[in-house]
Design brief:
Order of helices and strands: HHHH
Oligomer: single chain
Largest sheet: none
Radius of gyration: 15 Å
Number of helices: 4
Number of strands: 0
Structural class: mainly alpha
Strand content: under 5%
Helix content: over 70%
Distance between the termini: 16 Å
Mean pLDDT: 96
């Protein structure tokens, strides 16, 4: 399959689905977490996708491409921290936490691999 937009990237699709799942799960978090944990985990998970879109559009400039991938990687790692808080505050169960952590580990791995070979993505 030819990759024409950021939406065609497997890593984007994976990150988007994960962000939407986090959105749905976080609807059940306590109301007093609305302006802290809920906002933070939603923001960081969505930011992975936004940074990927920016990276894809900057792919003709390897340093800019890598920088945006690095930003996406950082946001994915931040999301993992918020997932840890969600588990320890008992806002999500262990199996959901573990599954989402594994998804974000896959996302991070894909981002690292893209950054290691930026020439593969340039045109």
């Amino acid at each position: 399959m030819k990759i024409r937009t950021h939406e065609d990237l497997d890593v984007y699709q994976l990150a988007f689905r994960a962000a939407m799942e986090i959105f749905e799960i976080s609807k059940g978090f306590p109301k007093d977490e609305r302006f802290s944990l809920v906002d933070q985990i939603r923001r960081s998970s969505r930011s992975v996708c936004a940074n990927l879109a920016e990276a894809f559009r900057k792919r003709k400039y390897p340093k800019s491409f890598i920088a945006k991938l690095s930003d996406a990687e950082g946001q994915a790692a931040e999301t993992q921290v918020w997932l840890d808080f969600s588990l320890h505050c008992q806002y999500m169960d262990q199996s959901t936490h573990q599954r989402l952590q594994e998804i974000y580990n896959r996302i991070i791995g894909k981002l690292v691999n893209m950054a290691l070979k930026p020439e593969k993505w340039s045109f």
